[in-house]
């Protein structure tokens, strides 16, 4: 079973965040794990009504080429989990702290400039009312 949850090991989370440029004191890491193995992680922070994705990481992917296969699944799942996390805490907008890579965010409905990608939360988190 695959799960994506906030990192429980705060020391490990601190080590990852120490490597993330611009990570503030309130930054968190969501880790994607399957059977005890980490498949990837996303560093994020909330800034008012904005969820900022600080870094996305998938095991074995180094951003030197377009993501493929399982890498796309991991990165997409982490981005969507980050959006859900942000929405839970009142964010109505998502942005990255880095430029889009290989059109990854653009393919998911984000706008982009040379510095980052951005979109309203409802591009990713859909609401259903009954």
Q: How many helical elements?
A: 2
> Which outline best applies?
globular
Mean pLDDT: 93
Strand content: 25-35%
Element order: H for helix, E for strand: EHEEEHEEE
Provide the low-confidence segments as ranges. Answer: none
The gyration radius over C-alpha positions equals: 14 Å
Strand order of the largest sheet: 1-2-3-4-5-7-6
| Assembly level | single chain
Structural class: alpha+beta
Distance between the termini: 30 Å
Largest sheet: 7 strands, mixed
Q: How many strands in all?
A: 7
Helix content: 10-25%
Word description of this protein:
The protein is α+β, with helices and mostly antiparallel strands and 130 residues long. 22% of the residues lie in helices and 32% in strands. The longest helix has 19 residues, at 70-88. The protein is globular and about 35 Å long. It starts with a strand and ends in a 10-residue tail after the last strand. The model has no long low-confidence stretch (mean pLDDT 93).
How does the SSE layout of this entry go?
Blueprint: E1 2-6, H1 10-18, E2 28-34, E3 37-47, E4 50-58, H2 70-88, E5 93-96, E6 111-112, E7 117-120
Parallel strand pairs: 4-5
Antiparallel strand pairs: 1-2, 2-3, 3-4, 5-7, 6-7
List keywords for this structure.
alpha+beta; 7-stranded mixed beta sheet; globular
Offer a concise description of the structure:
This protein is of the alpha+beta class and 130 residues long. The chain has helices spanning 10-18, 70-88, and strands at residues 2-6, 28-34, 37-47, 50-58, 93-96, 111-112, 117-120.
């Amino acid at each position: 079973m695959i799960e994506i949850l906030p990192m429980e090991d705060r020391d490990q989370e601190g080590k990852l965040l120490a490597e993330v440029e611009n990570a503030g004191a309130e930054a968190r890491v969501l880790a994607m794990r399957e059977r005890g193995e980490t498949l990837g992680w996303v560093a994020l922070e909330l800034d008012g009504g904005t969820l900022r994705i600080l870094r996305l990481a998938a095991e074995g992917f180094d951003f030197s080429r377009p993501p493929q296969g399982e890498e796309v699944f991991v990165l997409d799942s982490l981005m969507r989990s980050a959006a859900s996390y942000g929405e839970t805490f009142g964010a109505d907008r998502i942005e990255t702290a880095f430029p889009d890579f290989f059109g990854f965010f653009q393919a998911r409905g984000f706008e982009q400039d040379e510095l980052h990608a951005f979109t309203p939360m409802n591009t990713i988190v859909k609401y259903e009312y009954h």
